Structure formats: C-alpha cells, structure tokens
C-alpha cells in the first residue's frame, strides 16, 4: 500500500508539472506575440493573394522577413490561417485572400478585414500591425478603420500603405480623366457616395499613431491616371487622414509600369514598401 501511495503521489506530481508547463507555454506564446508586428496585404477587385506574391517575395529577398502566411477569408467572412509565424521573425507577412473577390460592398469588406485582424489577435496575441492595399484592397483598409479606428481592444495600426487607391471614384464608372479637382487641402470638388462615407475618417482616424504612404501611378499619357484610377482620386486620401496621421507621404510612379495592375509588380514600389515597412532590410 505504501508503494502504491508513493506511485500515486509521483503521478500527481508529474501531472501537476505538465499542467504548469502547458500554462507557461501558453503565456510565453502570447508574450512573444506582442513582439510580432505583421504586415497584412489586401488584393484588389477580382484578384487574389497571387497579386501580392511579387511584393511579398521582394521583401523576403531583401531580408525583411522569412515568414509569409495566408489568411483565407471565406464568402461568409470566416478566416482560416495557413502557415505559422516563425520564432524570432517578428515582421511577418500575411497575404489576405477574399473568396468573394468581386464584392463592392465596402462595409462588408471592411468587416472581413477586421476578422483577419481578430484571428491574428486570438492566435498570436498581436498588439500592433501594418496594412498594405492595392486598388479595392484600400477600401477594405479604410472601411475597417472607419468602423474600428477607435477600438482600443483591437491591435493598433502602425503603418499603412495605399497603392492605386480609388477613394473617390474609378475611371469609366464615376470619374473621367482630368475631371476631378482637389482644393488646397486635398478635398475633391465632387464627392462620390463612398467618399462621403469615408469622410468620417476625419473624426475617427487615430491621432499621431499611423504613418501613411500613398502610392499612385501616372502612365504619362495625358490622363493623369494609372489607366483605371485618376491621380486625383488616389490623392484624395490626403483630405481624409493627413491631418490626423503621424506622417503622410505621397509618391507618384511614372512610365509603363505605372499602369494600375502593374503597380503591384513594380520594383520601385517594392523598394518603397521595403524602406517604409522593413527599414532595416
């Protein structure tokens, strides 16, 4: 009986050690999670994470990170993370993929962006992150911020890169070449419905928190556009966020590679992203 008692005490002791170890590992994961600052890439209308591959691979080649995972967003907004953050690689890339990639319901797309942020928060315990958008991916970012910029329970946005953003219209739909004018503050002379909604950013965008890089293309054909979006539409972001952003910078890309869908394949854009988001690479 005494031997059985000793064996039972040993089993309980080992069991207790195992429970403490599991708890410690859980706390350790979340403690390290606070060090991770992932960069989320959002693709454009009708596209997929493949449009983000060129930029992501350029970052890896430059040594900015060695980690690329994917956030697959189902049509109902549910998020599945593919891959894992690597230990010690604290600036990973998250390629976001929308299954419903032809949705123009911007508030819904913004909610899907939030679902990705929340998934990363729940799995890794992140406290901060960056966002990169191309074309309609910028609407996912801005509508996410419109609804969540003041939510302190969520991880906080640190850096935002907007590429070929159509904040106040798209050529051939609700804009025409050289029609839109911006005043000295960057406000368009005519506001499209989506832009009117985004005007709320002037009240809720985080003060002195986010550094913004706004990249747009000019093909040099006289349209002052990238072929799909006028420069004025892209530059209209300034009026929405510049007065509250920690910093705001615009960069115009010119030439044939400044065409709308070629901007995410442009080496000059790659270098701008790397210098802005991975300055030590």
UniProtKB/TrEMBL annotation:
Annotated signal sequence is 1-22
Any idea which UniProt keywords this protein has? Answer: Hydrolase, Signal
Listed InterPro entries: AB_hydrolase_fold (IPR029058), DUF915_hydro-like (IPR010315)
Q: Which domain of life, per UniProt?
A: Bacteria
Q: What is this protein called?
A: Cell surface hydrolase
Q: Which SUPFAM superfamilies match?
A: alpha/beta-Hydrolases
What Pfam families does the annotation carry?
DUF915 (PF06028)
Instruction: Give GO terms: molecular function aspect only.
Output: hydrolase activity
